[in-house]
Amino acid sequence: MPENHEHQGGDAKHDGGHHINYKKIYFILLGLLVVSVLGPFAGIVIVTLITAFGVAVVKANLVVQNFMHLKAEKTLAKWVLGTSLLLMALMFAGVSADVLNHEGRNWENLAAKAAVERGIADPHAVGEVGGEAVAAVEVAFNVERNFDLVCGSCHGTAGDGTGAAGAALDPRPANFTDPVFWETRDRDRIVNVITNGGASVGLSPLMVAWSASFTSEQIQELADHVMEFRPE
Amino acid sequence: MAFPKPTATLRSATGIPTGRLAVWWLLASEVVIFGGLLGSYLMFRIGHPEWADAAAHTNTWIGAFNTLVLLTSSFTAVLGHQAAERGDGKTAAKFLVLTMGGALTFILVKSVEWTIEITEGYTITANGFWSFYYTAAGLHALHVIAGAIIMGVIALDAYRGRELQRVELIGIYWHFVDVVWIFLFPLLYIAK
Questions:
Q1: pLDDT at position A104, please?
Q2: Which among B79, B120, B191 is the nearest to A52, CB-wise?
Q3: Hey, where are the domains in chain B?
Q4: Using CB atoms within 10 A of its CB, is residue A37 exposed (0-12), middle (13-18) or buried (19+)?
């Protein structure tokens, strides 16, 4: 069995020539597990973070160095794994500023802001309970505020198509106060676009579908709000 | 009919046996997959304070028990490797079977846990936290299942005294699966 011979030869110093006490490492890992579970009982955030993530790093290092024998492995393997970790760090550094914040100098993440607002308004709401849809914001739904958040950024809070986020769009966001707009639109059409998104009727895909975020009653309320901009 | 070993199996320009080098490359790609997923979770979790309430519904004790199971299975996997190094294929196979027992226990506990959560309405579409929860834990569980299946094949060979070097290779993979869970546990069960 040539492969086994290779294995024996290649591994003669696989643990660095030192005997690793696996049982000892295992019991240290179990002790650290107990620490990470008990940490939150102190009720101090910094202690929880240290016992949760600090201990996780120590545990992972023990497994990687002693069970995976990385400490005795050739440098090439460490470079291979290190490069992947570096790529991950770059990814994190590159996008975290945009994900952690919900607004910047020239942009605003309305969906994220709306999600935070809904979640804090009714923290116990979940999408489905026993097969029955439960509205996450049924109690706290404010049609005007939601219009301003999800529609007003482009269409303008006054519905006149002058929202800041739509300034550079071509074609321009619709002006709900323009009688010409209503020559080809009705309430059903508005409900359809809010529910299924602009792309479903050949309009801008930037108008995303909101059916997953709002109940049909809330969408009806939003459509009513849009209808209020219609000139007599 | 016996086939000759592929040339690559016997070549080791790097000083690392080819099979083991391949496992390191595999794990490097896994680092990107899980690192990307967990890194994204971390960013969203910090940006969405309302997720704290959803995270409060995960059961720390179930998560801790599964951590205990995976740490123990890593211990049996490394003992299997130790036996294989001595050329004791039967003992190595026995430890691999014990490790597979750990995998089975982990999956059974996860199934019960998910059933409870889904019944309570915490489905993958409930909110962003639960989407990440099921995606990350589900991808990890798939790795557990795949590892257990491959381990079974290797245990059969090892029992017959064949391809003993593979006991170490599946062990390295298994420890990595353990390491991923070591980070998933505080992210999903402790930081609430």
A1: 84
A2: B191
A3: 17-190
A4: buried
Residue B117 contacts A where some CB pair is shorter than 8 Å: no
Is residue B37 within 8 A of residue B139, CB to CB? The reply is yes
Q: How many CB atoms lie within 10 A of CB B17?
A: 23
What are the pLDDT digits (tens) for B14-41? 888 889 999 999 999 999 999 999 999 9
Residue A60: which of B77, B128, B183 has the nearest Cβ?
Answer: B183
Token representation of residue B68: 């205990």
d(CA B24, CA A77): 6
State residue A125's pLDDT score.
59
B17-190: CATH topology: Four Helix Bundle (Hemerythrin (Met), subunit A) (1.20.120)
What's the gap between Cα A8 and its chain centre? 47
Distance CA B185, CA A37 (A): 10
Contacts of A22 in chain B (CB under 8 A): 75, 78-79, 82
CA B17, chain centre distance (Å): 23
In this complex, do A26 and B82 lie within 8 Å of one another by their Cβ atoms?
Answer: no
For residue A177, the Cα-to-chain-centroid distance in whole angstroms is: 36
Q: What is the pLDDT of residue A123?
A: 63
Q: Tell me: the pLDDT tens digits for A85-138?
A: 999 999 999 999 888 888 888 788 888 888 888 777 766 655 444 333 444 434
Q: What is the 3-state secondary structure (H, E, C) of B139-153?
A: HHHHHHHHHHHHHHH
Q: Using the beta-carbon criterion (under 8 Å), do B126 and A126 form an inter-chain contact?
A: yes
Domains, in order of start, for chain A: 2-100 (no CATH), 110-227 (1.10.760)
pLDDT for A5: 41
Q: Which of B180, B179, B169, B177 is nearest to B81 (CA)?
A: B169
The answer to whether B32 contacts A39, with C-beta atoms less than 8 Å apart, is: no
ipTM: 0.91
Q: Which two tokens stand for residue A87?
A: 């790529």
Q: B interface mutation test: which of A45, A63, A110, A129 has the most B CBs within 10 A? A: A63
